[in-house]
Amino acid sequence: TVCWLSSLTTMALLGNWKVNRSENYDMFMEKMGVNMVKRKLAAHDNLKLTISQDGNKFTVKESSTFRSIEIVFELGVTFNYNLADGTELCGAWTQEGEKLVGKFTRVDNEKELNAVREVVNGEMVQMGSRWTQTSKTHCYTHLRGLPKKPSTPAFPPLLMDHHLAT
């Protein structure tokens, strides 16, 4: 099945976002084996995201008290990424309706990490679950300064069944 995805589908995710609250984050990190000092620091990392899009390519700029990085990816294309604690992941983001869905695997032990980003009631909600069967949620407030709308079509045709099966 070939599915054309509208540029309006993910446009709500584009822009500048700042974490305004997190749910279950400390327990989530504890189950991952993160020590108490790092958990306490992470609870106050002041994370900000800027999400922009050019065709099928997304750029996510993460800035926090502890690091700033830029992640560039294409929907459905596998890439490597390091978490703030140094854990290396390999996986891809896909689109399911109005959600961006990330399916990643730790490189060192092949454990899974799944993430979903969507806008709910004007907030970007990022839910994540890991191999520990523990989940966490970050809620982001939209900030001023939206990126410029891309001039190219937002998404080429995607084989949705292929992306959902991987």
- Say what the CATH topology is: Lipocalin
What is the percent of helical residues?
10-25%
Identify the CATH homologous superfamily. Calycin beta-barrel core domain
Task: Give the uncertain stretches in residue-range form.
Answer: 1-9, 145-166
The side-by-side strand order for the widest beta sheet comes to 5-4-3-2-11-10-9-8-7-6
Q: Globular, elongated, flat, extended or rod-shaped: what is the shape? A: globular
For the record, the count of structural domains works out to 1
* Architecture per CATH nomenclature, i.e. the level-2 architecture: Beta Barrel
Summarize the main sheet: 10 strands, antiparallel
Cα end-to-end separation:
15 Å
The total of helices stands at: 4
Strand content: over 45%
- How many β strands by DSSP? 12
Protein architecture, described:
The two termini are 15 Å apart. The chain contains four helices and twelve strands. Helices cover 15% and strands 49% of the residues. By secondary structure, it is α+β, with helices and mostly antiparallel strands. It has a single domain, classed as Calycin beta-barrel core domain (Lipocalin, Beta Barrel), CATH 2.40.128.20. The N terminus and C terminus are likely disordered. It has a ten-stranded antiparallel sheet with strand order 5-4-3-2-11-10-9-8-7-6. The protein has a two-stranded antiparallel ribbon with strand order 1-12.
Describe the structure using short key phrases.
single chain; Lipocalin; alpha+beta; two-stranded antiparallel ribbon; 166 residues; 15% helix; 12 strands; 10-stranded antiparallel beta sheet; 4 helices
